[in-house]
Amino acid sequence: MNLKTVISTETIDLHLKGTTKKEIINELLDILIRSGKITDRESALKAVLDREEKMSTGMKHGIAIPHGKTNTEDLVACIGVSEKPVDFDSLDKQPCRIFIMTLSPVEKTGPHLQFLAEVSLLFKSSEKREEILKAQTAERILEVLTE
Q: Which of 6, 70, 73, 85 has the fewest CB atoms lying closer than 10 Å?
């Protein structure tokens, strides 16, 4: 999967302000609303929060990947970076600063799993994580993700 087909500069925010899991999720949804990727905010929020209740999407190395299945036509995604670490109930018990939200159609499993696999591969690299955190522009984050 080519991440450039899913993520653009319009779906990247370098300055998330939230201090809780729910605030971060709401900010990420706002990115998807502003960019026109989703229109039904309430069902998207419910899908993501339902998924979080089953198991936290806080991964390792300061990354969280909140996601859910909702009434989108295609897989949509956004990335946010927080200046301050946020507790996201991560697997390694560490707070997160890099957040990648994805929403996918209820009836399609393939693209969702492909996206998650691609993103998890990218972030095994401590260099890439550092580059994301140091990035000053959305364009730079897009470069790091696709190089």
A: 73
- As beta bridge partners, residue 127 has none
Residues 127 and 60 sit within 8 Å (Cβ to Cβ): no
Interhelix angle 126-134/138-146, rounded to 10 degrees, is 170
Q: What is the pTM of this model?
A: 0.93
Distance, CA of 31 to CA of 41 (rounded, Å): 11
DSSP states of 79-96:
EEEEEEEE----TTS--E
d(CA 109, CA 139): 29
Q: 130 φ, ψ to 5°? A: -60, -45
* Statement: residue 54 has pLDDT above 90: yes
Q: What phi, psi does 19 have (nearest 5°)?
A: -120, 0
Give the torsion sign (CA, 39, 45, 50, 56): positive
